[in-house]
């Protein structure tokens, strides 16, 4: 049974951290039964609400009727109202997508634009919607997450809650009747043009003839699967956490560790989903484990790179560094570690340490300030001991660095002249000679 009291109790149970009194809510209201009941319940709770209505202009005069109905409702209750009128057909044609997909993209993009930092969007999805969603996912083919259906709460791209999800369509109808609520009917809901309508109007009634409580049973199963999913996610996350290592600032995962669960798609999905991969890429990623050095698979945000017996996980937007150095002594912190500078008399240097992480530059050849920056593809230098210049890209290629390590390489330069490829090789033009009197000693300490 849906009453104001039960609605509030369910809210406290499902959204304990979300204050119904002290939060501003944007309610998606179409004018139909479900959204009108949700708006009424929130208003009855004295919540701070704004009504948001999208006119998709798909049903001619009926779309105009719905918009006018919402305007009258908001005016009657003195509620703030936002209306977005859009040519959905034109949008779908422009971006080559189905009408339903276009409508969904339009409304959620608009809702996101309306939400302020602490606002929460409310939608009127209910238990019957949950049944339809779970069946659709099952028929399409899905994993555990797909069978959990619609979540009560989201707080990622959108800050969203669905407070009617625990209540059935019949309970919502009874509440509207008892409260004498008006609403409009969407004529497209009676047509079977869309998959969801076909499941709602044809398939579920036939299933109900055999299993009368199908809605309650599927909803209950989805709730239990949510609990099971939480256990699985925690177990999988713990497994991967034990395998991750950070080497010189690069997140890595041993191939051998991944191979322990290579045949288990649940474990692989638990690893890759946070990095922008899709379930369909699981097999492709398994092939990466046996690929040659330098092979990679990319998403819009990350790359998984095979190097030797590891997978390196590298963000695509790794920031470039550009640090101006004004003084010849002290320590400079960089994203790869630190650089320690010492200005010495040449007579104080008993021996030159051959460690590539230490550079000895002729101080007289430096013009201050000098620059520490990430290398570029156009860079060249004169490697110590060679009389001719070499493209830095070719030099680094010869070092057989991993792709991720190669991206992290930095240089010290004076103007456009490289003094030192940090941690690898000095430039011959800045080496100590018999005429050198002062030396800038730079010691590189990389992150472990």
Would you write up a description of this structure?
- This protein is α+β, with helices and mostly antiparallel strands and 448 residues long.
- The protein has three domains: 4-226, HUPs (Rossmann fold, 3-Layer(aba) Sandwich); 244-315, Uridine Diphospho-n-acetylenolpyruvylglucosamine Reductase, domain 3; 322-446, Phenylalanyl-trna Synthetase, Chain B, domain 3 (Phenylalanyl-tRNA Synthetase, Chain B, domain 3, 3-Layer(bba) Sandwich), CATH 3.50.40.
- 38% of the residues lie in helices and 23% in strands.
- The protein is built from 15 helices and 22 strands.
- The chain has helices spanning 4-14, 33-44, 61-76, 88-95, 99-114, 127-140, 144-147, 169-179, 195-210, 214-243, 255-259, 265-272, 282-288, 392-398, 403-408; strands at 24-28, 48-55, 81-85, 120-122, 153-155, 159-161, 245-247, 250-254, 296-298, 302-307, 310-315, 322-325, 330-334, 337-345, 358-362, 370-374, 380-381, 390-391, 410-414, 417-421, 425-426, 438-446.
- The strands form five sheets. The protein has a six-stranded mixed sheet with strand order 3-2-1-4-6-5, sandwiched between helices. Strands 7-8-11-10-9 form a five-stranded antiparallel sheet. The chain has a five-stranded antiparallel sheet with strand order 12-16-19-20-21, with no helix packed on it.
- Strand 9 (296-298) and strand 10 form a beta hairpin.
- Helix 4 packs across helix 5 and helix 10 packs across helix 12.
- The mean pLDDT is 91.
